[in-house]
Design goal:
The protein is mainly alpha-helical. Helices cover about 70% and strands about 0% of the residues. Belongs to the tetraspanin (TM4SF) family. It comes from Phocoena sinus (Vaquita).
């Protein structure tokens, strides 16, 4: 009965190690997704420290590859030292993921203030004639999020670009996709996106941060199960005589 319990724990542990390799790939993907998306919105969010959770989660993903290898070798070879190392590393990674979750919530709360502070400046410097990186970022966001202006399309009337062009129109990126004849004129507001971009940018960045938080929570739960199974194997290896005989190849007298 003891051997069956040990075998079951070992089987689960090996299976969890395989999951760790899959988890490592997913965590690295989530971290890379955050970096790529941040690059699209970086003009609206100047606090680079927001990327700390993404950096940590990529590092954890890379470490999980190594953890899976250590766990598989330790389980197959019945190494007490290897399993103990496996548990300690898992515990450290678990603590790291808890830190990621906390940081994720902290920076998620800061998103709205950061965007509100940056977006005003970006719109003020818009140049649709000879667009720079910030101007291209505005056009990209307005097309992708289907929005116009900071709070609505009327915000464009307060920009230097609008006053210089003197044609009573907003950028073409404000035009609805379903309107083929739109030229950005304020005389036809029904052709323009009605919603402002600030709230949508905040929502998008907060969603990205939630991806990091949920990924960290999900794999922290898996790691807890891995630590539990490893501890069961370690405890029974030291206490169960039948298990010691199974390892050494001995028999009862």
């Amino acid at each position: 009965m003891g051997q069956c319990g040990i075998t079951s724990s070992k089987t689960v542990l090996v299976f969890l190690n395989l999951i760790f390799w899959g988890a490592a790939g997913i965590l690295c993907y989530v971290g890379a997704y955050v970096f790529i998306t941040y690059d699209d919105y970086d003009h609206f969010f100047e606090d680079v420290y927001t990327l700390i959770p993404a950096v940590v989660i990529i590092a954890v993903g890379a470490l999980l590859f190594i953890i899976g290898l250590i766990g598989c070798c330790a389980t197959i070879r019945e190494s007490r030292c290897g399993l103990a190392t496996f548990v300690i590393i898992l515990l450290l990674v678990f603590v790291t993921e808890v830190v990621v979750v906390v940081l994720g919530y902290v920076y998620r709360a800061k998103v709205e203030n950061e965007v509100d502070r940056s977006i005003q400046k970006v719109y003020k410097t818009y140049n649709g004639t000879n667009p720079d990186a910030a101007s291209r970022a505005i056009d990209y966001v307005q097309r992708q999020l289907h929005c116009c202006g900071i709070h609505n399309y009327s915000d464009w009337e307060n920009t230097d670009w609008f006053k210089e062009t003197k044609n009573q129109s907003v950028p073409l990126s404000c035009c609805r996709e379903t309107t083929s004849s739109c030229n950005g004129s304020l005389a036809h507001p029904s052709d323009l996106y009605a919603e402002g971009c600030e709230a949508l940018v905040v929502k998008k960045l907060q969603e990205i941060m939630m991806h990091v938080i949920w990924a960290a929570l999900a794999f922290a739960a898996i790691q807890l199960l891995g630590m539990l199974c490893a501890c069961i194997v370690l405890c029974r290896r030291s206490r169960d005589p039948a298990y010691e005989l199974l390892i050494t190849g001995g028999t009862y007298a």
